[in-house]
Structure formats: C-alpha cells, structure tokens
Amino acid sequence: MGKRTQRRKARQEELLKKIAEDPFLTDQELAEMLSVSVQTIRLDRLQLNIPEVRERIKSVAQNAAPKVRSLTEEEVMGELIDLELGKQAISVLETKQELAFKRTGIVRGHHLFAQANSLAVALVDAPVALTGTCTVRFCKPVKVGQRLVAKAEVIEKKKNKYTVEVRTKVGQDEILVGTFVVFALEEVNNDSDRS
C-alpha cells in the first residue's frame, strides 16, 4: 500500500469519526478540521457512501418528529432531529435571510429564542405544555447561513413541572443558554368554546 493510499485511508477513518461525533458538520467544516479541500471531502464522502449534511439531518429528523405530543411538527422552530420525551432533544435551524435584519445580516434574537423554547416544550410528554418562566442569555450574534444546533435536557421534574436547560451552538461557539420552566397539562379549558 502506497503512502498516498495510507493517507487517504487514515483521512477517511478520521472523517467517519468526526461525522459520528457530530453528524451536522458541513463539508467546509470537515475540510478545515482535516486540512484538505472541500472537494477532497466530497470525494471521500462519495467513496464512503456518506450523504451530504442536509440529507443526514433529514433522515434523522424523520424519526424524531412523530414522537412529539405537545406541538405539531410545524410548531417546532428548526428541524427536530432527536427526541427522548422527558429527557433530551436536539434541533437544527439553518439560518436564512428572512430571519435576519436586512441591514446587518444578523439573525433576530426572537428566532433563536423560538428554537430554544419550542425545543423545551417539545420535550414534555403531555398533550399540552406551556412555558411558565425562562431565563435566556444570548452569548454571540448569529449571521445568515450559520447552522444553529440546539440541545435541550430536562434537569429537573416535579409533578407536572419540567425544568429544561437549552444550549444553542454554531460549531463550537455557544450562542444561547436558557433555562425554561415548562408545565405539562392534560387539557386546556377554553371558555370561548363553551355555549
């Protein structure tokens, strides 16, 4: 086996390891990590039958969405890609121009909040879940085109009250940290429905 073949094999093993650790890495991010061109990453992915990041996210998302009880799939901001009701969840949001201020290209904070809040609510195993209180800290601005990965975890549960911690990152940079207190309800009485 030649040196070039050995290098390619080692690089492809490292590529598989990186994607196993974080399936949301783009070809650009992988290229930077492995000090090769984006084209080299694409060729390696083709040889290894690894789909591009959008396809990886889609396939994972199809398994997670049907588990949500408290929201519809459309009500979750971003793509829900992992969900263990009552324990943890992950969503991914691809930022686009319509989410940002036109002049600066910085994504508006309420979209970051919506991703985190909807993920916290989606975690609750009940037909209705409502946010009672939250504390959120925005750490860094997000620019159009960046991928937001939000991870939520139930850190405490008492009766129908869930305390959920959400951390949103772009790559390794923390963007938002929040603690949400979410209440699980079996039903909601709506006075306007009464005759």
Describe the protein in words.
This protein has 5 helices and 6 strands. The protein has helices spanning 3-21, 27-34, 38-48, 53-64, 109-122, and strands at residues 79-84, 88-94, 128-138, 147-158, 161-170, 173-185. The protein has a 6-stranded antiparallel β-sheet with strand order 1-2-4-5-6-3.
Largest sheet: 6 strands, antiparallel
* Helix run count: 5
Helix fraction by DSSP (H/I, runs of at least 4): 25-40%
User: Radius of gyration, rounded?
Assistant: 20 Å
The averaged pLDDT comes out at 87
How many separate domains make up the residues?
2
The CATH homology group name of the largest domain: Hotdog Thioesterase
Number of strands: 6
**Might you state the CATH topology name of the largest domain?**
Thiol Ester Dehydrase, Chain A
Return residue spans where pLDDT drops below 50 for at least 5 consecutive residues.
none
Question: What is the 3D shape?
Answer: elongated
Order of helices and strands: HHHHEEHEEEE
Structural class of the secondary structure composition?
A: alpha+beta
The strand order across the widest sheet is 1-2-4-5-6-3
CATH architectural arrangement of the largest domain: Roll
CATH class of the largest domain: Alpha Beta
Percentage of residues in strands: 25-35%
Through-space gap between termini: 81 Å
